[in-house]
Amino acid sequence: MSLPALSMVVGHTLQVRLLSRLLRGDRVGHAYLFAGPSGVGRATVAMAVLARLACVSPPADSADACGNCRSCAALRRGQHPDLATIAPDGQNIKIEQIREMTGRLRYDPVVGRIKGVVIAQCDRLHDTAANALLKTLEEPPTATHFVLLTTQPETVLDTIRSRCQLVRFGGLSPEHVAALLVRAGVAADGARAVSALAEGSLDQARALADPGKLALLDLVAELALSLGAIPADEGVPWLDRLGRSLSAAKKSEGLTAGDALPGSAGPMPDASAGGDEKKPKSTELSRDDLRLVAESMRAVLRDALLVACGVDADGLPHARHKAALLGLASRTDPKQIAEVVEQLLGFERALVGNANVKLAWAAMITRAGQTLA
Q1: Cα–Cα distance for residue pair 194/210, rounded to 1 Å
Q2: How many domains does the chain have?
Q3: In-domain check, residue 96
Q4: What value, to the nearest 5°, has the Cα angle with vertex 268 and ends 37 and 181?
Q5: Which of 168, 184, 219 is the last residue of a domain?
Q6: Is 191 domain-assigned?
Q7: From the centroid of its chain, how far is CA 185?
Q8: Which of 29, 106, 156, 364 is a good FRET partner for 280, with 20 to 30 A between their CA atoms?
Q9: For residue 263, is it within any domain?
Q10: Which residues of the chain have pLDDT under 70?
């Protein structure tokens, strides 16, 4: 595995600057609470901090570990005896996990200068585990550092929060998400498209960057950009086309029948089950799946709106659909596109309100087609 380093962190400029200054000045506290959305790199930053603290020969002019000492070598192998991560075992982090951790912390570091623990989803500490951790935080063993991670800092025990230094993380910008996907081998045009839907989370972006999901997003873009150019009611049967595309995406991810897709609220029926070739039913799309479809349509139409207002399509997330973007922008007024974006928001609210999925889709897509005609 690669060695985590603050200099390689994308985004979070202020947080990295703060932690780098503390590391270079040897003023790092014994416990930190990293709060923020999931999938934005909090765990990576935590391990980069612990790697530098554990490094036997830390560079004086850098907040990164040296990369060459025995501690860095152990971490690169994924077998560092002084650094550990605790995560929920089932629904909660159990007291047995905390007891095992505190037992190990009694001993001196083996290969590094410190002992370090990352506690993921610390808001899911069982009450007894939280109280046991609190005692350790109140009287930490020498040369020991903790980094607690949470998406819900308000639910963490007050006494634990008060003994940690809070560092807040926000979502990554679409540009940063796209850059990280490209670094991981995703094509630039696909990376830009999914970054607009990832809500600042690299985890969500990775799920959407699957080839099957990208095919679904392209199909959604095709539908959104054809509205007004096709009869208004022709958008209704697209529900089945989207369902078949989503089923194909499930297969491309290697999921078995009955498994849930990332972001899906429930199991997806196997479209190939049975001896007959049957079209998947519209119910293949869960409400969460349809929210993804609606969000994707809004993202495409936002690009069309920008083009209609004179923005160059080449720099937009959906630039690979440039011809269709220009086509929609040329035949409609920006106010019409903005109205359809609002209609899609209303559709998403209807899904939350337990509306009939098929009827809500038919009403929304027909109205959208009429608006852009």
Answers
A1: 10
A2: 2
A3: yes
A4: 40
A5: 168
A6: no
A7: 17
A8: 364
A9: yes
A10: 250-284
